[in-house]
Design brief:
single chain, 305 residues, alpha/beta, 8-stranded mixed β-sheet, 11 helices, globular, disordered N terminus
Amino acid sequence: MNAPSANPKTSVPERKPDDIIRVRLVEGYDVVAYSFGAGDDVLFCANGGPGLPCDYVRDSHSVMADRGFRVVAWDQLGCGQSDRPEDASLWTLERYVAEAEQVRKVLELGKVHFLGQSWGTWMGTEYALTHQEKLKSLILANGNCNIPHLVRELNRLREALGPETVAMMQRHEAEGTLDHPEYQAAITILNYRHVCRLDEWPAAVNRSLEDWNMGPYMTMQGPNEFTYTGNMKDWNRIPDMHRITVPVLLLSGLYDELTPAGTAEMHHALPNSEVRIFKNSSHMPFFEEPEAYFDCLETFLRKVS
C-alpha cells in the first residue's frame, strides 16, 4: 500500500495502552506488545504487512476493551518499536508463527481469540495449524489462504483499469521501473478502490504506512499489494484447513483486494466457520464500517467464549 497524500482533517482521540511490554525472543531480539483492558477473554491481534507497525489494527481494535475484552497487539519483529534486524533469513512465516507463540506465552495470555488481518491471516492460519490447542477461536479478516488464487483475483481487479493501463503496469514490472509516476498512479487508484475506500485515510493507517519496513515485505510478498514475487507466492493452506476445528469468523469487504472469492474458498474448507461480507468496505472494514464490523466481532466472540 502506498499512503495517500491527504491526512484526515479530524481524528478520533486515541486510546493509550494500559501496558507496553518488551518481549525478548529466543533469537535474541525484542518485540514490543501493547495491552488494552483487563477482560478474561483475550483478542490477540496480528496486523497486515509484513513489515507494518501494528498501529492501524491496534488502535482500531482497542475499542473492544470497552466491550469487556482484553486486546493485545504487537509490533512484529522488524517494524514499529520492535527491533529491526537486517537478516533476511528471519522473514519467514514459520518464524513469525513462533514469534506469536512466544508473545502469547510471555504475556501469559492463556487461550486466545486470534485475530489476523491481511497478512496476519496467513500467520493466524499457520498458528492454528501449529498451536490449535492455544485457541478459543480464530478470526481471519481480509485474507486469502491460497496465494496463487489471490494473484488471479488481483489480476482481475487490475483488468478493471483497462487494457492499456494493465499493459503499462506489466511493462514497468518487466523493466523494474515500479517507481515511475504512471505506475504509481495506477497503484494509487487500486489502493483507493480495494484497500481503503475512505476519501481520507485514518491517521493510524498513515502512521503505519509511513513507517513500513520494506525488508520483510519484499522478502515475503513483493514490491506492492498487487505483485507477489516473495517467498510466500506459492503458499496455499486450503487443503489443510479442514484440520482447524475451532470456531472461525471470516471477514471481508465487498471491494476487498483480498476478495470475497478467497473468503468463500476458506469457508468451504473450514468445518466450523461463518462469513460476514461488509458491503461498503474494501480491505479495512474496521475503519470503513466500524459500527457494523465491531458489532459483528463482539457477537461472534460472545458466542464462542
